[in-house]
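Researcher: Next entry: Thioredoxin domain-containing protein (Discostella pseudostelligera).
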Amino acid sequence: MKAYATAVVAALFGASAISAFAPTTFSNALINRGASSSSHAIIRHNMADNKIFDQEVFISESKEMRLKHLEEQAMFALKIAAENYGNAVFPNALIAGDVVITHLLHRMGYLKDGKVKIMVVDTFHLFPETMEFLREIEDFYGFKAEVFCAEGVPVGDKEAYDKKYGADLWKEDIEQYDKVCKVEPFQRGLKTLNTDCMLNGRTRWQGFERAWIDQFENAPIGGGLAKCNPIAYWTLEDTFDYIAKYKVPHHPLHAKGYPSIGDAKDTIPIPEDGSTRFVDFKFEGDKTPWLDYACERKGRFVGLANKDGSTKTECGIHVAGAEQTFDRDLWVDGKVQNIASNEEATEIIKSGNEAMVVVYAPWCQFCQGMEEEYAKFAETASVPVYKFRGDEEREFVQENLNTKSFPTVNFIKSDGSVVKYDSEARTAIDFANFQKSFEKATA
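Model: Predicted structure:
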């Protein structure tokens, strides 16, 4: 009868769960389906007295069963993504969930055979350890990531980025920073790699914005791109359990108190004293500040707010509208004339003729927003109307065209003085009234 009872439990829970139960003897009455409640009480009493149930072993083995299921589930999703789509791409942020996915892709052979490509977005504001860690796992797993950064800037050239976009863009306009440094290069990377299925490490455990995601969904990039979330149902504890089980290479800042790693400018340890750490594949300190629901990203976007004043929790990559890019210039057609160089701009300023000049950046959403109205103004303006791209000539436009941010509209007077238009109202009528105000002053 003991063998029969063991077989029943094994059939229900799997053989691995049986080790939590020590050998014992059950009477026919106690295993009978019709056992009374008092009989059940006797069973519980006997289990306690005879120490036939080891709670810690049961918990450990239950976690192992869960991890095995999650692993198989994730690998099945990755198999669908890699085998059923032509160009699966994994944008890898090198955080805990992403290194798990990297490890799974390696185990399945998809990194070696190139069925899945890995891309990384360098924002030029990452921790130094992040790109160093990328090189380490490239060597460890034998792949080469495709790195993308702000448009028009060579990979790794922070000085070129500062010159074109400004070192303080994130302070001046965080939404523009996200667009320039994250969303646009992210989308450009997917397009360059011709992907039709994007892998990513988002999970339901990360917070209410992601609480209902499934393993597959449509990505907000346009064109029917699929998004695969292979670890959608994992908790952060599952992730670190998996890292520990397989000794998965992981970001070195986990050992310094960071549960998740983003930009150095707005990522902090949790708790801030760094007392919770993941060192040598195990936790030191109280792990609950990391592992509680929605706490993984608690140290991210610290001190940042959206335009509407709400707390920032997303960088914009995974939200609707991410398909909008700035891969074109502004005012290509029409009567807005282009100023091609600093020298030409200087000539116009010193020419003795009145003119209107907008200093702009094609990636700037506010420049894009006034494109139509400025073009309409140029159609009827009584003075020449110019555009000058200033994002690559920041020193010059600051010194000569009153420009600290984009767009900046100036009226050039006949005496060579440059007067800035100081209003957020940017319709064709507003620009016309600004121009006419100088006619009145001259009359």
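Model: Note for the record: The longest strand covers residues 116-121.
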